[in-house]
Write a structure and sequence with these properties.
The chain has 514 residues and is α/β, with parallel strands linked by helices. 32% of the residues lie in helices and 19% in strands. It is built from 16 helices and 17 strands. The strands form three sheets. A nine-stranded mixed β-sheet has the order 16-15-14-13-7-12-11-8-17, sandwiched between helices. The protein has a six-stranded parallel β-sheet with strand order 3-2-1-4-5-6, with helices on both faces. A hairpin with a 3-residue loop joins strand 14 and strand 15. Helix 3 packs across helix 5 (106-113), helix 7 runs parallel beside helix 8 and helix 11 (261-279) packs across helix 12. The N and C termini lie far apart (52 Å). The chain binds 6-O-phosphono-beta-D-glucopyranose. Residues 178, 246, 265, 373 line the site of 6-O-phosphono-beta-D-glucopyranose. The site of 6-O-phosphono-beta-D-glucopyranose has 4 residues, from loops.
Length: 514
Amino acid sequence: MDQPTHPASVAGKPTLPGARVSAAGAHPAPPATLIIFGAHGDLTKRLLMPALYNLAGAALLDDGFKIVGVDRVASDDTHWRDELTSTMQEFTHDKTAEFYVEHVDEKAWGWVTQRLSYVQADFSKPEEVARLHDHAHGNVVFYLAIAARFFGDVVEQLGKAGLLKEAPDAFRRVVIEKPYGSDLESAKKLNARVLAQAGEQQVFRIDHFLGKETVQNIMALRFANGIFEPLWKRDHIDYIEITASETVGVEQRGAFYEPTGALRDMVPNHMFQLLSMIAMEPPNSFDAEAVRSEKAKLLQAIHPVRAQDVVRGQYGAGEVQGQHVPGYREEPNVGRVSDTETFVALRLLIDNWRWAGVPFYVRTGKRLHGRQTQVVVHFRKPPYALFRDTGVESLTPNMLTLDIQPHEGMTLSLTAKHPGPKMALAPIDLRFLYKDEFALAPNVGYETLIYDCLIGDSTLFQRADMIEASWAAVQPAIDEFGDQPEFYAAGTDGPQGAHALLEREGHAWSPLAE
Ligand code: BG6
C-alpha cells in the first residue's frame, strides 16, 4: 500500500509542538520503527498517539517511520487503528481531555494510521517476544508503556532475543516509563538488569515533566540571562519552594497508588527534576552527558531526608471546585484504613558551596484546591536602615515565581514607591506569560521526548546515577515512616503540618491559586 507523503511537508512550513524542536532547522528524525508494548493501555491512547500525530503534523517524522503495537489482547491492525481513531475523535469533543484539538487533521492522522500494525504477544513469554524480529528492521525504539513490574522482564526478553543488538547503521533503544523502582534497592536492581542487556546510551528513562516546555525554560532563564546567575546562591537566596498541586484524586489508580503514595509517585522523579534544573551548576554545554552530570551531582548533594523534615497527608471528603468528592479511603481499590499519603511536604538541604543552609521546600498533593505547578525563589530581605524614619514598617523580599503549569510563565515581584509626597512602598509584579509572547501548538508533553529519543538526544532523560541518587536522598525518610498521615479535607491546601514545617524557620508557602 502506498503510504501518504508527509502532511505538513505538503501543507508548507512545519509548526512545531515545543519550542526546542521548533527552532529553525528542525529536521525529521531518522526513519525508525517504534514498537510500543502496551498498545491498548491508557498512555498509548491518551499521550503517545496524540504526540505522534502532532509530530507527524509538524513534519518531524520520516516517511519511513512505522509503529508496531504489542499487547496480549486479541486484536489486529484494523481493530487497533479503529480503536485509536475513536480515542482521537473523543479528544475533539472533550474540552477537559489532556489533549484537546478543535478537530483532528485527517491528513496528519491518516499519515499515522497508515503506519500502524498490531502484534498480539504475551511479553512474559520469550518465544512471543522473539517474534518481534519480523518487525524489527533497521532503527528500532522499544517503548515500554506497560506496568512497572514488567520493565525488567521485558528488557531481559528483548536482550536475550538479540533485539537490542545495534549495528553501525541501526540503533536499538528502549524507552522506560516511570515508576523506575519503588525504593533505592529496587531501582538499583532494575538498573542492573537493564544495563546487563543494553548500554546506558540505549536506555531512555522517561520523566514526563522534562517534556514540559516551562521546565526546559528553566535552563534558558538561568543561563541565557546575565542577571540571575550572580544572585543564584546562598548569599542572596533565602529559600526556594517547589509545588505541584493537583485537584484530581487517585481516580481509577487506587491499586497502583496504595503501595506507592505521593512521595514515591512524585518526589524522586518529577519534583527532583525541577529541583535539579533550578539548583544544578551551569553545564559546560548542552551535550546530554554534560547536563546530566551536573544534575546527578546536584542530586547526590541532597542531604539524606529524615522523617522529621517530612509531612505526610491524606485527603478526606470535601469539596473541590464546587463538587463534593469522597475521601481517599473511599476511593476504589483503596484500603478503608489505608495510611498511604496523598500529600507530602519536605524540607531539603543541599550540601554544596552554592546552597549550604538554604532550605528547599517541596510539596505535592492530590485533591487540593488548585492545580498549579510552580517554583518560587525567595530572595533575601534588603537592609531596612534607610527607611527607619519613614512610614515604611518593613520591606518585602523579592520573589521570582516560575509557573510551570497551567498558566505557563513567570513573575518577578518587586517593590516600588507608591506615588505621593510621602515615602510609601507598594508591591509590583513584572509578569510574562508564554501565551502572550508565543504561538503555542497543541502539545501533550511527549512530542519532544519521542523526537529526542529518535534523534538520540538523552538530555531530557534520566541516567542510571540520577535515578539512584534521587532514591538515595529520600530512602531514610521512607524507612522511618510509621505514623498515620495527617488528614486534610479535599479542596484545601493540605495538612496543617505542612505550614508548621516552614514556620519553624520563619518561612511560608505561597498561597495556592484557585
Ligand atoms: C504522574 C503521576 O507521573 O504525574 C500522577 O503518577 C500525577 O499521580 C502526574 O498526577 C502529574 O503529571 P502532570 O503532567 O499532570 O502534572
